[in-house]
Amino acid sequence: MGKSTLIIVLGYIMIFGMIQGDMNKITEKAFQGTAELYENIQANIVATSLAEYLVCRHIHYGLSDTTISNGTWLNSTVNADIDFHAHSSWSGFDTLLISCVSLCGNIPYTCRVSLNSRTLSIPPIFAAAGLFSALSIVSVDTIAQIIGNDTNMDGSDGDGTDLCGLSVSNSVDSSTVSNEHSGTNRIVGTGASPSISTHDMSSTDLQALADFYETVADSSYTGGNLPPGNYGTQLNPEIIHVDGDVHLTGNLNGYGILVVEGSFYTAENSGLIWHGVVIGVDSNTIEFDLGDSSTVFGSTLIGAPNNAGLNLTGTPADTTIEFIIEEGKITPQQDFTAHVLILGVAFESLPITAKVRISDEWFEPWGTYTSPSTANLNDGNQHSFYPPTEYAGGTSIGITCKSWFIFFGWEWEKMEVSSWDNSPNVIVLRDGEEIPDIEPFGEQADITDFLEYYIDSESGTVTLADNQVIYLFELWTTDPSDPAYDFQDLVALVSLFPVEEPEEGAEGDSVVIGLVDEIPTELIYSEEAIQMVMDMLNSGGYVTRSVKNIQWWE
Question: Is 545 exposed, middle or buried (0-12, 13-18, 19+ CB in 10 A)?
């Protein structure tokens, strides 16, 4: 073999050797990269899974202030902490921080979570009775009582802290109920009589609690079929859940927690005796009628988004009232009181004001009608008004609204529309009528957004009580071809309530939805009964927490 040939062969050998070495290094690096990628993904999965596990343990078992270490969990080393950080006395929520560190091979990964939570094993007890709704209606017969003074379950005086008799969701309802029961001892407790306070819980909070109790109930019933009889004992209280309206025909005695997802009525010669907590919730409106010697020791909590009625008489409150609608105004045919609720406003960012007319009297409950800068209803909130007195049958009621422009401090009117003068810019809806199918202008809310709780899910028609009317106002244009002609610039609900005159020869003023029963009904706050319920929940591990504002970061 010549020298040149030998040189060529040796050159090829060296080149192939170098290529083989590079390929080995590439393979080694690729394997190393794949291993690191696997370890990184595994560490990520382990840390986030452990964080999710701790969130679940906290929600269902109250886990807090705990450290977890494990060297073999999913082939990884993990260390985790769930720590209490702060408490808000205003909202009742705790802030907790969760930190999870996992090590898979040589790759570490850290996952952190912050969350706000509040114990839901039992709701805050504000009073002997609590209503959670945009509109609370309370009817207490002359021989019925709501008592916030602490009382033992045997009827003797308790040693605990006294509470208010009644607690409602807003100051307007508080003032109205207080006026209706002024000068009586029907609602007693701390402070002056009637003993009434306000709270900041919503019907949504109460519904979440009812949903939880359904999952841990000792007995569950559907279709409102709650049989009369005995439920639980003082030593062994129970959780009873009922889905549907209950029409109690017989006597029911129980200890623990009674949850009714629907209204509750007691028939003649029937009664409820309950020791603990009674909860009533519904997705729209709810009425709790307790009578014929019904008594609750503990606390009674009733909630629904639209309105909640508590009737301590034994006969469901009759809100039936005849009225006519003519040229947009409502005219009841018998003596009445009223409630006006602005459900919402959708008018871009421009202000809207409104006032209420009853006969020839004008009311400006939401601020000066001609001052859009101070009386603007376009603020994302609902607004309520109870006229201050009763009115004779034949008296008409209506609403007038005005849209405005504001520019560099200058204010001028865009359009005024009244339900009093047969305006084409007002639509009036009663129960069962079709909801207008009108596309909202731009990105504004739809009519159905404001009528969420007033729509029949099957027919799509409006669902109202016999005493209610909905107004839809268009405050931009009178041209039906204009895209802005959408009738949700202001949406209002008007509710009418009959006034019942006392029987001839009877003393006292007329009352709203006033009924008479011969047997007393009482809702009585009992710290002993509440403590019994708390002991039952704690011993049974019945703890859940309402969690919000969960934030994750690495």
Answer: buried
User: 244: Cβ–Cβ under 8 A, 6 or more apart, which residues?
Assistant: 222, 223, 224, 225, 261, 262
List the beta strands (DSSP E) in 419-467. 426-429
For the chain, how many helices (H) and strands (E)? 5, 34
- pLDDT tens per residue, range 201-231: 888 888 988 988 898 888 999 888 888 888 9
The separation between CA 256 and the C-alpha centre of its own chain, rounded to angstroms, equals 23
Q: Report CA-CA distances (Å) from 122 to 10, 32, 167, 329, 537.
A: 87, 54, 17, 46, 8
Q: Which helix (H) or strand (E) holds 14?
A: helix 3-61
Q: First vs last Cα of the chain: how many Å apart?
A: 67
How many other CB atoms are found less than 10 A from the CB of residue 205?
A: 19
Extents of the domains making up the chain: 3-119, 127-318+513-539, 323-499
Residue 376 near residue 353 (C-beta atoms within 8 A): yes
CA distances from 100 to 28, 33, 83, 532, 553 (A): 32, 25, 12, 38, 11
Instruction: Output Rg (C-alpha) for the chain, integer angstroms.
Output: 32
From CA 11, how far away is CA 548, in angstroms rounded?
71
Q: Give the integer Cα–Cα distance in Å for 194 and 467.
A: 27
Residue 44 corresponds to which tokens in the numbers above? 């990520």
Instruction: With CA atoms as reference, report the closest residue to 366 among 350, 342, 390.
Output: 342
Q: Given the DSSP bridges, would you call strands 107-119 and 545-553 parallel, antiparallel or unpaired?
A: antiparallel
User: Can you read off the two tokens belonging to residue 428?
Assistant: 């009036």
User: Does CATH number 3.30.1490 belong to domain 323-499?
Assistant: no
Residue length of the chain: 554
Query: Can you tell me which residue has the tokens 């907590």?
Result: 277
Contacts of 75 (CB under 8 A, 6+ apart): 42, 104
Q: How many CA atoms lie within 13 A of 487 on its CB side?
A: 21
CB 445 within 8 A of CB 505: no
How far apart CA 474 and CA 492 sit, in angstroms, is 12
3-state secondary structure 337-391: EEEEEEEEECECECCEEEEEEECCEEECCCCCCCCCCCCCCCCCCCEEECCCCCE
Tens-digit pLDDT profile for residues 333-373? 999 988 888 888 988 778 999 999 999 999 999 999 999 99
What is d(CA 274, CA 524) in angstroms, rounded to the nearest whole number?
10
Dist. CA 391–CA 397, nearest whole Å: 10
Is the pTM higher than 0.85? no
Q: Of 513-517, 522-526, 550-554, which has the strongest mean pLDDT?
A: 522-526
Tokens read off for 415: 């359009």
Containing 76, the helix (H) or strand (E) segment is strand 76-87
User: In terms of DSSP H, where are the helices of 105-264?
Assistant: 171-180, 203-216
CA 387 to chain centre: 26
Question: Could you tell me which residues come within 8 angstroms of residue 405 by beta carbon, excluding any fewer than 6 positions away?
Answer: 350, 411, 412, 413, 414
